[in-house]
Design goal:
The complex is a heterodimer. By secondary structure, chain A is an alpha+beta fold. Helices cover about 20% and strands about 40% of the residues of chain A. In chain A, α2 packs across α4 and α3 crosses α4. Chain B contains one helix and 28 strands. Classes of the chains: A alpha+beta, B mainly beta.
Chain lengths: ~550, ~375
């Protein structure tokens, strides 16, 4: 597929999503690596076969509405789903996948255009979106995430078409709270469409440049490290074999910090040159991956989560260790567990990385090498003086914090969401995972200042209390669910509960309390949990 | 499918017009009180409320979720908004025959939702507040709302007799005794159903009450069957009070007397409490409000004089014609019945097979 040709800019624009009718750079020539002519033709045929009944094909090969929008792979897939649900589109699953691939490749978003909204794309479920214009939040994000807006590119007229679609599809849109006190329709069609057209226009230099960048093949061996909130760490190898069409067969060989191992296989696809989407089976558990590759294609980051419980997943960093020539591509330390060492305490430390070699040292600490390989070194270390020091492995190094005591702990997330589920209904429970992190007060001796040092996850005991007097009156802590020793809040079942006041469901407003014992001192910290009701509509971009 | 109803409908219309004079809506001593309520997906129930008994169950053809219901002045036909707000279906209440149907998207390439319905005082016309969208081949085009007037004798493929442009965001229609049509939306409008001319009869979004924020009221529930007065909870803030003072957040009862066409507003409590609907006692001295709680409000003193917890949420509050019983309904499959004096629970009606009433309304008739 990686056809390398030199072609005029006008043709590039045509190939890469029919983005614009004209360009100031018509005489400029750039290299195009990413889409073959055959793929363009195949994609156009799919559009003609499946979409042209309603979306008119113009003489220049564009399709009405479709060619005026750019989206993520999930955005395009939701579009096709909507056409199926509301407009009777009948499309074969394989054609749907191919169409998403074609549209995301030719009318996708550049890495820089998705960077600010990856948490939502990665299906982190309790994200509170920050920093967006409050008026746009009220206009749009009262029903869905703001990311769903910000992960699209359209010009003003297309934003207006989207507003008309909303008005024609959802009868209550003008009557909901945050809409009914204003002329929502006039605002949405007027200033808001204008603003969105300026903020998120169809044509951007970022996308033009990304299309002119050579998209990388992802084949090879990858080192992966991951963090399972509240649980620990993962360290593994992923072997990726190209099978054509930016599709890959993948094998996994993972080990978790509690010593358990997992192996498995999966299939992945790369959209838009960097959007890695994978499905994997490890043991009897199905997983999905939503990762982004770096521009050079040698680093990937994202989430690796359970298919049936997207809230339960790891945050991953993967480095390409070798490509098809088996040459080392990237070298260094990827992760150190634990990330801090307590004074006077002999501690086993696992250093994960790529092509690790040479002497291992921690400044001011005694280090005993227990096992070594280019991927993973295990040492035992003991230090007598606190401070931030250098941990070195040959030429590579990282910061190691040495501390005398945990001064305080924090619970993350500080505001979590769980959802009732099960109980004979179709929607599964959504858990909430909490984690306690230890901190040193740092040089200034004061808690919650900029020089405080994170000492990593600490093992805490967990408990649940009513958040306030209203929660106590409703006995939320009694009914809303329970928390495990690992900090996983498991909500109660869905449905009205006749034992509760008003026969209400098992929702609750709760305090999550972590307790950590450091020698004789008992440290506690709290988070807020809204144990709420089901989401009945769970699209890929919430 | 619609064709098969034609013959019964013609007969029914004939019979109804013949019988109209003998079946009176007026609260005569001999008249019996019934509650009419819908339920998902396609049920309409006639309840002998004093006997706590569902007397009749009708099935509404091509129905998904019955919502608003209006009853003909003679008490013989229920006009039900259903089919995802897209149809008005007239069901005669003896045999359940369909005597009227207007599918609001009968116009080419339109999708139209009803957001308010009432009848002319003589029952000859239906007023429907419609929100249309033009469905182009590859896009939607939101159109301006309109008041559609249908003749009740227009049969099963009724088309509009008159239509007029209307302001956006209206959510409730009610006809005064005089025949003037009132519409609640951003403001309360008075509409001339012959010309389509409308004026602000009571400003809400544009009210100029000193030290009060823009109010919020989203009334969907008719409350005037047994008292002749529309009422709804209405929320606003006292902008002259501190933001952390919960008493700043006020609840009032807004009312419109459908005989005198006079509006009134009573501020009866501070501190936020979710209430979906109110109903006046026929004596006009007391009102009741409900959602998770049932409130008894003294309208003269302008204060809540009793509050009880309900066993679950109920959307609509209603009252018997004699003022002795308060009903709460909608939401689930039961109507709960309370003594209007002390709010003690005195009965209930559970709909057969426990269907979901959802956002359907409760209507009271006498026949």
């Amino acid at each position: 597929m990686k056809l390398k040709t030199i072609i005029p800019m006008t043709f590039i624009l045509l190939l890469s999503g029919f983005l614009s009718a004209c360009s100031d750079d018509q005489e400029k020539t750039v290299e195009v690596f990413n889409i073959s002519e055959a793929e363009i033709q195949a994609g156009r045929s799919l559009l003609a076969d499946n979409c042209s009944g309603c979306h008119m094909e113009a003489a220049d090969g564009t399709f009405s509405r479709i060619s005026q929008i750019r989206k993520t792979p999930e955005g395009w897939d939701m579009n096709i789903a909507r056409m199926m649900i509301f407009h009777g589109l009948d499309i074969e699953p394989e054609d749907r996948r191919s169409l998403v691939k074609f549209l995301a490749d030719t009318q996708g978003l550049a890495p820089s255009e998705t960077a600010a909204h990856r948490d939502v794309l990665e299906r982190k479920h309790n994200i509170i979106e920050q920093g967006a214009d409050p008026d746009l939040m009220a206009m749009c994000a009262r029903c869905h995430t703001y990311a769903r807006v910000a992960l699209q590119r359209r010009d003003k007229q297309e934003w207006q078409n989207l507003v008309h679609m909303h008005l024609g599809q959802w009868a209550s849109i003008e009557y909901q709270m945050l809409a009914r006190e204003r002329d929502w329709r006039a605002d949405a069609l007027g200033p808001v469409s204008e603003q969105l057209g300026q903020m998120y226009p169809l044509k951007t230099p970022s996308w033009d440049e990304w299309q002119a960048t050579k998209w990388q093949d992802m084949s090879g061996a990858w080192r992966m490290v991951g963090h399972l909130p509240g649980m620990g760490y993962m360290d593994g190898i992923m072997k990726v074999t190209a099978v054509g069409g930016d599709r890959y067969d993948v094998t996994y060989d993972l080990i978790y910090s509690d010593g358990t191992a997992a192996t498995g296989t999966g299939k992945s696809i790369v959209h838009s040159g960097y959007e890695w989407r994978g499905a994997a089976t490890l043991g009897d558990q199905k997983y999905h991956q939503i990762w982004a590759a770096s521009e050079g294609g040698n680093v990937m980051t994202g989430r690796f989560f359970k298919r049936d419980h997207p809230e339960d997943g790891m945050i991953i960093t993967a480095w390409r260790k070798t490509d098809n020539t088996d040459g080392i591509i990237k070298q260094g330390i990827m992760n150190i567990v634990p990330s801090a060492l307590k004074v006077g305490q002999e501690t086993e430390i696992v250093i994960s990385g790529v092509n690790l070699s040479g002497d291992v040292s921690i400044a001011g600490a005694e280090v005993t090498l227990k096992s070594t390989s280019p991927d993973r070194i295990v040492i035992s270390a003991r230090a007598e003086m606190a401070g931030s020091v250098v941990l070195a492995v040959g030429e590579d190094n990282a910061v190691m914090n040495i501390y005398t005591q945990v001064d305080y702990i924090k619970v993350t997330p500080d505001y979590g969401i769980s959802r009732v589920g099960g109980g004979g209904g179709p929607i599964p429970k959504v858990m909430a995972q909490f984690e306690a992190t230890g901190y040193s007060n740092g040089p200034d001796g004061l808690a919650n200042t900029d020089d405080d040092i994170s000492l990593g996850m600490v093992p805490a005991a967990w408990s649940v209390e009513n958040y306030n007097a209203a929660a106590a009156a409703m006995q939320d802590a009694k009914y809303a669910g329970h928390i495990t020793a690992q900090g996983t809040f498991i909500p109660a079942i869905a449905g009205p509960n006749s034992a509760r006041k008003y026969g209400t469901n098992n929702a609750g407003d709760l305090k999550i309390i972590a307790t950590y014992r450091d020698a004789e001192r008992i440290l506690t910290a709290e988070a807020h949990l809204i144990a709420t009701v089901q989401r009945w509509n769970n699209p890929p971009i919430m | 499918m619609k064709q098969i109803y034609k013959l019964p409908v013609i007969l029914a219309v004939f019979l109804l017009s013949f019988l109209a004079s003998s079946l009176s809506y007026a609260k005569e001593d001999s008249a019996k009180e019934y509650m009419i309520v819908g339920a998902r997906p396609d049920k309409l129930f006639v309840i002998d409320i004093k006997a706590r008994k569902v007397e009749k169950t009708f099935t509404i053809p091509d129905s998904t979720a019955p919502q608003n219901i209006v009853i003909s002045p003679d008490g013989n036909v229920a006009y039900v908004v259903t089919n995802g707000l897209k149809s008005i279906v007239g069901i005669e209440l003896e045999e359940g025959n369909v005597v009227f149907r207007a599918d609001l998207d009968y116009k080419d390439d339109e999708r139209t939702w009803n957001y308010g319905i009432d009848l002319s005082p003589d029952g000859s016309e239906i007023y429907s507040y419609d929100i249309p969208t033009k469905i182009h081949l590859d896009r939607f085009e939101s159109l301006e709302p309109r008041l559609s007037v249908f003749k009740t004798n227009a049969g099963l493929e009724a088309v509009v007799a008159r239509e007029f442009p209307m302001p956006r965001r209206i959510h409730l229609l009610m006809t005064a005794k005089s025949g003037a049509l009132y519409a609640m939306g951003w403001d309360f409008y008075k509409i001339d159903v012959q010309t389509g001319a409308y004026e602000v009869a009571y400003p809400l979004r544009h009210w100029t009450k000193e030290n009060l924020s823009q109010p919020d009221a989203l009334a969907f529930w008719p409350s005037w069957d047994n008292n002749g007065i529309f009422s709804t909870p209405i929320y606003y803030a006292r902008t002259d009070m501190a933001e952390d003072n919960m008493a700043r957040y006020r609840t009032g009862v807004l009312s419109l007397d459908l005989e005198t066409e006079k509006f009134d507003m009573i501020d009866f409590q501070g501190e936020p409490e979710v209430l979906f609907s109110t109903v006046y006692h026929p004596n006009r001295k007391i009102a009741y409000a409900a959602y998770n709680t049932l409130l008894k409000i003294d309208l003269k003193k302008a204060e809540t004089i009793k509050r009880i917890d309900l066993d679950h949420s109920y959307y609509q509050t209603e009252i018997s014609a004699d003022g002795t019983e308060v009903y709460v309904g909608g939401t689930a499959c039961d109507i709960a019945i309370y003594d209007s004096e002390d709010l003690s629970r005195i009965g209930e009606v559970i709909l057969p097979n426990c269907p979901d009433m959802g956002a359907t309304v409760v209507r009271m008739i006498h026949k």
